[in-house]
Specification:
The structure is a single chain. The protein folds into two domains: about 180 residues, Porin chaperone SurA, peptide-binding domain (Triger factor/SurA peptide-binding fold), CATH 1.10.4030; about 90 residues, Chitinase A, domain 3, CATH 3.10.50.40. It is about 55% helix and about 15% strand. It is built from twelve helices and ten strands. Strands 4, 5, 6, 7 and 8 form a five-stranded antiparallel beta sheet that branches. A three-stranded antiparallel beta sheet has the order 2-1-10. Strands 3-9 form a two-stranded antiparallel ribbon. The chain starts with a helix and ends in a 5-residue tail after the last helix.
């Protein structure tokens, strides 16, 4: 899908921008117009893809080579299209993106991104610039044409109504404590009218909890059986007894319960709109890339590509 495609572009593009240029020019393994991707650069991209994807199997990486090649080709086609259409990003936009990265990254994570061997903040700026140009170009050339009419949404719903059946579910909150005495104290407070938020803040031993104690919305099969049996038997807006589990003691609260049934069209509309928009995007994107390929010579040396190994 569009978001996943952007992720793959990011991994593959990042590795290209951070690759050192070879002093002794190597033959092209991929050529898109006048742009040449050399074997050491492709190997570096394959290695970085393996690192980012946590893939260690050479067999799996061999299968992924064609995907990486396709993404390199698509990336270069889009960048060349962007240059012809004068699609750019400003230094101010890059500054804003860099600020967001720096503010949201601690020192340890930043050091993981910026290694002494081949990465620095200038590389990061160039990566942001190029990725932004690609995203902006796709947005302008492909996504702007996507529109899903109410008639199409209704038609899809009528033809795929079974997709929108939902089993019974519970909106679940809890207080989790490791001490039985504290659990009993918390239950007394809850049943005496003290708010769940106050009890969670005072007693909860779970660092994963939000302050509200919200766990999520669950259907049968999502939870351990001993928990499921309890929460699906609690009346709405009621607290459970103290439930002893391997981790500790839980008090559950069912805020809302839904009966099994099919979502009405009004509730399913956003889901359908997103699904149809994704389908249209993929079709438009494929046509866009095929049209670009007709205007540009693309050459791939598959013998050299197949010989690339991350173990070298």
């Amino acid at each position: 899908m569009y978001s996943m495609r952007c992720v793959i572009f990011s991994i593959v593009l990042l590795s290209l921008l951070f690759s050192a240029c070879s002093q002794n020019r190597n033959p092209c393994v991929i050529k898109v117009g006048d742009v040449c991707i050399e074997k050491p650069t492709f190997r570096d991209r394959l290695e970085r893809f393996a690192e980012e994807s946590l893939i260690s199997s050479e067999d799996v990486l061999d299968q992924m080579k064609s995907v990486i090649v396709d993404n390199i080709v698509e990336e270069q086609l889009i960048l060349q299209y962007a240059r012809k259409g004068y699609i750019t990003v400003t230094e101010q936009e890059i500054d804003i993106a860099m600020k967001g990265i720096m503010e949201g990254t601690d020192k340890e994570d930043l050091e993981a991104l910026l290694t002494e061997e081949s990465r620095n903040l200038d590389d990061m700026r160039e990566f942001i610039r190029t990725r932004s140009i690609i995203n902006r170009t796709v947005e302008k050339a492909v996504k702007k044409e996507i529109a899903v009419s109410p008639e199409k949404i209704k038609k899809y719903y009528e033809e795929h109504e079974s997709e929108f059946f939902r089993p019974s579910s519970v909106e679940l909150y809890h207080v989790f404590v490791k001490d039985n005495y504290k659990a009993k104290e918390a239950l007394v407070m809850l049943r005496s009218g003290v708010s769940l938020e106050q009890v969670v803040e005072r007693y909860s031993d779970s660092q994963e909890d939000e302050r509200s104690g919200f766990m999520g919305v669950f259907v049968k099969g999502d939870l351990p059986k001993e928990v499921e049996d309890v929460v699906f038997s609690i009346p709405e807006k009621r607290y459970s007894e103290i439930i002893d589990t391997l981790r500790g003691y839980h008090i559950f609260y069912v805020a809302k319960r839904s009966k099994p049934g099919t979502l009405p069209l009004i509730d399913a509309a956003d889901e359908i709109r997103y699904k149809l928009a994704e389908k249209i995007f993929e079709e438009n994107y494929a046509r866009f890339i095929e049209d670009l390929k007709k205007e540009c010579i693309v050459e791939v040396n598959w013998d050299e590509i197949k010989s690339v190994s991350v173990k070298e």
